[in-house]
Amino acid sequence: MTQASPSITRRLARTLLAGALLWSVAVSLAVWLAVRHEVRELLDDTLQGAAEAMQATLDDTPDTPQPLIAEPARASDRYAWQLVDYAGGGAPRLLQASTRAPRQPFSATPLAGFADRPGWRVYGVAVEGSAKVLYVAQSQNEQMEAVWEVVFDAALATLSVALLMYLWLRLRVARELLPLQHLSERVRGHDLLAPGATLGPAAREELQPLHQALDELASQLARRLAQERAFSAHAAHALRTPLAGMDAQLAVALREAPEALQPRLQRVRAAADRLQRVVVVLLALFRSGVELRRETVALDALLSRLPVEGLDVQVPADACVDADPDLLAAALLNLLDNAVRHGAQRVQISLPAPQQIFLQDDGPGVSEAHRLALQAALVHDDPEGPTGLGLVLAHWVAQAHGGRLQLPHADSGFAVVLELGGTGDARLGSPASPA
Known about the structure:
It is a single chain. The protein is an alpha+beta fold. Among the domains are: 6-147; 292-435, Histidine kinase-like ATPase, C-terminal domain (Heat Shock Protein 90, 2-Layer Sandwich), CATH 3.30.565.10. Helices cover 51% and strands 15% of the residues. It contains eight helices and twelve strands. The longest helix has 54 residues, at 4-57. It is rod-shaped. The two termini are 39 Å apart.
C-alpha cells in the first residue's frame, strides 16, 4: 500500500492535468464559435460609426481630386477610407483617401451599407446632396486578428483558471489520500497475527470499514495458521511413533531374515528413515511460536548430528552462521537427503559470503532447462512446479530467515545457495569457491 498511494496520486495528477488542458481547449473552441459572429458584428458597428462620424464632419468637397492624404481627425489608423464621386455616369473619381486605402475605388458603382471586397470589409454611406459616397473599410486580416485575439485572451484566462484548479485539486487529492498512506504505514508496522492485534480507530470515518475488514482478515489468518500448525504438529507426532516402531521391527527383521531378503528389507528401512527425516522437518517448521531463535551456529557441529549415511560432507571447521539451529538443521537435512537420493557421494559446503551457505554435490546434476524451471518455481512459490519436498522445505526455511534459496549454475553436480538474511557473522575457514 505504501507504493500504491503515490502511484494513485501520480495517475490522478496526470488525469487532472489532461482534463484541465482538454477543458481549456474546449472552452477556447466554444469561445471562438460564440464570439466569431459577435466580434464581427461589433467591428461592423464600429466601422459604421466611424463612417457616420466622418460623414458629419465632411466639408464641401471640391470637384477635383485632392492629394491622397491621411485624415487622423476623421478616422482611426485602424481603418482605411475613400471619398468617391460617381457624378456624370462615367468612371468613378477618387476624390480623397487615406494612405492605407487602395488607389482604386472600393466599388465601381455607388454602394451603400456593408460589403466584402477582396481583402476588405467595406461600409459605404452616401454624402447628402451629392453623388459622392464615403467608404470606410477595415482589412479582413485585422478582423481575423481581432477575433483570434479575443479567442487567445479567453484561452489564456481559461488555461490560467484550469491550472489553478489543477493545483488546487492535486493538493486536495494528496490530502485526501494521506490517510491511506498513514494506514499503509500502520499496516506495515503492525503484527496482524499477534493475539488481539487491531488497527484501532480510523483517521477518517470512510476508512473505518477498511480497518474492520483488515482486522477480520488478520483474525481469520491467525486462526487458520494456528489450525494448520496444530494439525501439522499433531500429524507429525502421530507419524513419529509408528515410524520409530517400524524402524525397530525392520532392524530386528534384518538380523533374523535370510540373507536373500536383507537387501529388500534394507531398502524398506532406508525409505522409512527418509520418512522420519521429513517428519522431523515438519516438527521443526510447524512448532508452536513464530519467532526465530537466532544464535551463532557452527556448521561442522550441526552437520555431525544429522543422520545422513553414505555421504561424505566436507565443511570448514570454523564456518558459522547466525540462524535458528532447528530450522537450519531441517533445511540442511533435506538438501543432503536430496543429494543422497540422486546418487551423490560427496557434498562440499562453504560460505562464499556472510549468511550464505553454498552446497555442491558430485551427483549427476540436472539439465540447464530443468535448473531454470526449478528456480522459477521457487521464485514464484509454485506448488505445482517441478520442485521436490526437500527444496521446498529448504526454501521455506530461507524465507523464514528473510532470505531465499538459489540454484546457481554448476559445471558438475548440483549446487544450492541457502541465503539466511540478517547480518550475522559468518566466518570462512577455507571454503571452496562456488561454481
